[in-house]
Target: 2-isopropylmalate synthase
Amino acid sequence: MSQQDRLVIFDTTMRDGEQSPGASMTKDEKVRIGKALERMRVDVIEAGFAAASPGDFASIQAVADAVRESTICSLARAVDRDIEHAAEALKRAERARIHTFIATSPIHMKYKLRMEPDAVVEQAVYAIKKARNYVDDVEFSCEDAGRSDIDFLCRIIEAAINAGAKTINIPDTVGYAIPDEFGRTIRTLLDRIPNADKAIFSVHCHNDLGLAVANSLAAVTNGARQVECTINGLGERAGNAALEELVMATRTRTDLFNISTGIDATQIVPTSRLVSSITGFPVQPNKAIVGANAFAHESGIHQDGVLKHRETYEIMKAEDVGWGANKMVMGKHSGRAAFRSRLTELGVTFATDAALNDAFARFKELADKKHEIFDEDLQALASEAITDSVEDVYRLVSLESHSATGEVPAAELVVAKSGVEHRSKSEGGGPVDAALKAIEAVACSGANLLLYSVNAITQGTDAQGEVTVRLEKGGRIVNGSGADTDIIVASAKAYIHALNLLESGSSRQHPQNDGV
Ligand code: KIV
Ligand code: ZN
Model:
């Protein structure tokens, strides 16, 4: 197969995905997602925006240290400071890419940048040359390309390639494009730009009109050879193109695309679950490929057909994307060394022996309640052990809940607030409502509850329930998560996690703010 037949998969779950309100990830969480993406054999991992905050910077460094097979990338506006930060954060990466961008649409240049088109070209060229002083692999994006003038795009891209950009990204930043039109744009750029053959053309589509995947595929049909995407389609506003959909569409319809990715598709479902659990963004049941119903055949006619001959109704095999692959990895009798080694494979490391011992004790408790422990259970347990830090303001000490037919549900619990234990009791519409009210009576946070959701982590009635609680306060949104075989306890843990995130608020700069 020629070079042209390879589609580069660029994952931006940890950068654009993290721009979803409330989806911020800690350094350790990013390392775990990075390891999962590496196992999936993603080509390029955009691990963050180094200049956004010291936390983003440290996360990119940590991902670059832990992930050696994929290229690690940092976003940078076309300004000195951003490029210097990106280069520094990527210093130890085995393979590093700096992704610099500037807006090219008339509306962005006039109102956001307040720059003339000539100055925008000059700034882009300057930034690319500067980035090339640090790394060979430089990507340049024309922000809001979907609404940019085609002549201007040709001009700035030609200059960008001459300045040393190896990948040219055409983002539909506001999700405005329509597939035919977007495909034509890519074809025109490839036909008209004289040095287009010196770079790989990439697309980065947002989903505001629900067309991110369709637009990306139209671009691939017309010559794009990199797609930027996220797990579960996470991302700013309505999200980005979903990695799993792009990979499976090109794979299922090779007859049309005649292209291959290097992706190990069996890692798709486990990675989807990991991202959902870390960010607290549940996956809708009817979501393509990774939704719980994606391979469920409800109707009798369909079931009959599938039993007789699977291809009657199935275009993909569930096991090919990792469904049913969750294997029992551990049980009650597994030892500390096996526990540590499996977690290391999953990208989870513990800073101290005490932290490892604490996580192992939680594992033993879980193994008493649940015979079979799957990777998903270990991931949930690790999230909890890692997020449960000593600096936390709130900690759940104990919880008792009561519900019986004909009686008002009630909860009584002890919560430690800054080390001081408080007992609290409340009634509610149900036991979860009662428990959260009892916690709020101690915290008095006044936060608005935006979302409460429960998902079973694995199958069976002894599965752990994973609860997400999204809280908003003063414009800040956080997602707390908690897992337990008792969903009242999981709910209390999730609420407390969200309260701790609100307390710990660190600020980050948004990459698409004017940086020039
Ligand atoms: O949507 C967008 O334009 C982006 C760029 C920074 C690539 O995220
Ligand atoms: Zn974007």
Q: What stands out?
A: The chain has three domains: 7-279, 295-325, 328-516. The first strand starts at residue 8 and ends at 11. The longest helix spans residues 353-369. The domain at 328-516 is CATH 3.30.160.270 (Double Stranded RNA Binding Domain).
